[in-house]
């Protein structure tokens, strides 16, 4: 039987301030980086041969 999932702890103080600031100032990923990640994913996907 699975164990119950614990509640996520609440962050306080400086950690909470940094988290809020990071969520308000999201920097989009450059298109070149996105394409490189997609290319790497497709390469690995083409080589993964799992029997069904």
As a whole number of angstroms, the C-alpha radius of gyration is: 19 Å
Count of alpha/pi helices: 2
Q: Please trace the helix and strand order, writing H or E for each element.
A: HH
Secondary structural class: mainly alpha
Portion of residues in helices?
55-70%
Q: What shape does the CA trace take?
A: flat
Number of strands: 0
Low-confidence spans: pLDDT under 50, at least 5 residues? none
Mean pLDDT: 92
Q: Describe the sheet with the most strands.
A: none
The fraction of residues in strands falls at under 5%
Terminal CA distance: 27 Å
Tell me about this structure.
With 52 residues, the protein is mainly alpha-helical. It has helices at 13-24, 31-47.
Note the topology:
Blueprint: H1 13-24, H2 31-47
Please summarize what this structure is:
This protein is an all-alpha fold and 52 residues long. It contains 2 helices and no strands.
Question: How would you describe this structure in keywords?
Answer:
flat, 52 residues, mainly alpha
């Amino acid at each position: 039987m699975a164990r119950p999932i614990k509640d996520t702890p609440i962050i306080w103080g400086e950690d909470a301030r940094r988290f809020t600031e990071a969520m308000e100032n999201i920097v989009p990923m450059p298109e070149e980086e996105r394409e490189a990640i997609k290319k790497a994913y497709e390469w690995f996907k083409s080589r993964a041969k799992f029997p069904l």
